[in-house]
Amino acid sequence: MRKKWDILEEEFQNMDQLMKDPTDKILCFLKCTAEKDGTLDEAGNVEMKNIDKIIAMMKLKSEDENSIKDCIRKVSVVKTCADFRNIMKCMTSN
User: What CDD domains has UniProt attached to this entry (predicted)?
Assistant: First the structure.
């Protein structure tokens, strides 16, 4: 999948930086992945039940989980790769 998006392995090396300031290619890769796994529906709406599963795997404090969920609920429709940055901001704000 990474080859399809022309993403170099080095771009995945620094995960902290990647999450806080993803490149346009990474945003497109993540948006496509979210569409394929059902995190985003066909219209670009966030499916919170899938977000709940992702957040549960992060093993955060409940107040951090709630903060992320509240932030994501405020994200409008994700139609472009750049729109996915708003979800990333929610995920990295804690």
Answer: PBP_GOBP
